[in-house]
Design a protein that fits this description.
The protein is mainly beta and about 325 residues long. It is about 10% helix and about 50% strand. The longest helix has 16 residues.
């Protein structure tokens, strides 16, 4: 019974905060692809990022998310990327993958302003570990009847505008297909739609001096169930190698962010101090990421080194 009550609390809190159909992330500004498929290929290198988030530490059965992602430019105008994720909350688990592609339009002759249009697809498996459930009634048919571990497909789209490495803004929509599946195979038909989710993402990087800068960003999330949530983030940077800042998530948490870069490696950590009622039962949330940056492009060169071979072996006329 205790485990069942914990599951109810987790699901209720997750629905109130962010519906948990798409994993929560406090360091989204370091990986825009997580909320917008059009953001693949906007950087002048190939980022390979691994992340781990432990939400509501010390709360039994609280959500834990692991993910790995990568993206890059393919040719001059196309981007391609994807991620693999594993999201666990109590006895429930979501494991899946996203694949995204984008097309980049040059908006001015100086190549300072660009607009990317992206589309993606996802495939998610929903699981329930019945061995972790304790029911009020012995042999409860809602559990013993089993559950349907389905692979659920879906789609997402986005637009992403970016100005050099200074400013960006984008809109995106996830769970477009909104399949209504009986994910847990109960005896009576139950609709479990993946609700459409919309994002607005924007930010600007200010240069305060030769050594110091300020990175600002905001993320607004709207879910068709009527839930709206927003984040605002500000980070102070030193020579683009070290950053320290904070983020506020409306009616949910205040996050403190710190990180740095050494060569091709970037590392970030955030701690979320919970503002909701669940703060009485947890020690906040922890999130870390490690990023490897490959093939930094120089001005006028290709970001994808395998495309250079045609120039290397091109015969002289």
């Amino acid at each position: 019974m205790k485990k069942f009550l914990i599951l109810v609390v987790i699901i209720s809190a997750a629905n109130f905060v962010s519906a948990q159909q798409i994993s929560l992330n406090s360091q989204y500004l370091f990986n825009e692809m997580l909320v917008n498929p059009a953001a693949v290929g906007v950087k002048d290198y190939i980022p390979i990022q691994m992340s781990f988030r432990k939400q509501w530490a010390n709360f039994p059965g609280a959500p834990v998310t692991q993910a790995i992602s990568a993206n890059g430019k393919v040719g001059k105008k196309m981007g391609f990327g994807g991620s693999i994720f594993n999201d666990v909350a109590g006895p429930s688990r979501r494991t899946g993958m996203n694949l995204n592609t984008s097309y980049h339009l040059q908006l001015d002759s100086k190549k300072n302003h660009k607009l990317a249009m992206g589309i993606g697809m996802s495939l998610t498996q929903h699981l329930i570990d019945v061995t972790r459930l304790t029911t009020y009634l012995p042999d409860d048919p809602a559990v013993t009847a089993g559950f349907d571990n389905q692979m659920v497909p879906d789609a997402n789209v986005g637009l992403f505008y970016y100005f050099k490495d200074k400013g960006y803004a984008g809109i995106s929509a996830y769970n477009l297909v909104e399949l209504k599946r009986n994910l847990y195979d109960f005896e009576n038909s139950i609709g479990n739609p993946l609700v459409r989710t919309y994002y607005f993402l924007g930010g600007y990087n200010f240069r305060l001096s030769d050594n110091f800068g300020l990175k600002t960003s905001t993320l607004v999330q709207g879910i068709e169930t009527g839930t709206v949530q927003f984040d605002v983030t500000a980070l102070f940077t030193f020579k683009d190698y070290v950053w320290l800042g904070a983020s506020y998530r409306h009616e949910d948490a205040v996050a403190f962010l710190v990180g740095g870069q050494a060569g091709p490696f970037k590392f970030g950590y955030s701690y979320d101090y919970t503002l909701s009622d669940i703060a009485d039962y947890s020690y906040g949330s922890h999130e870390v990421f490690l990023e490897l940056q490959l093939f930094h492009a120089k001005e006028g060169t290709s970001r994808t080194p395998w495309l250079k071979r045609n120039r290397i072996y091109k015969p002289k006329i």
